[in-house]
Amino acid sequence: RELDAQRVSFLSAAGSGWDDGDVKSGGARHRLLVRVLAYLGNDCAKKGDGTALITAWKKVKESGALPRDGVLSTFLYALTSNGEGYGEREEDRGERSAAADDAAQEIATFHDILFRPTEKTVSLRVKALVAKGDAKGAEDLL
């Protein structure tokens, strides 16, 4: 319900041509937006750099988009692979790392609400709760 409301709000703000009279699915342009974000996720995963996905995740939330299970998994992979194997220096990670961790935790929760939880999504959520000092919440997830 909240996703539908967010989608309607986005489509209203985006102006004509975005909803094609089909608010439920968002219309052709909205579906294209979801596909473009999926392609971006694939590209980021291939390059081992999830930086662009921090902003992409904000756009998913802003638009009320409902990405498929595989798209969310790809976002998580790209955000949590930390650029390993691509020569990223530790000092380059700083703030971007914290933002990527926050986005990954949100995506994992979003994934688990919409789809069947996976070992990776539950693990990310448990680590986030432990980092916040919520051992009971982490235990409840397991």
From TrEMBL:
It comes from the Eukaryota. This is Uncharacterized protein. It comes from Pseudictyota dubia.
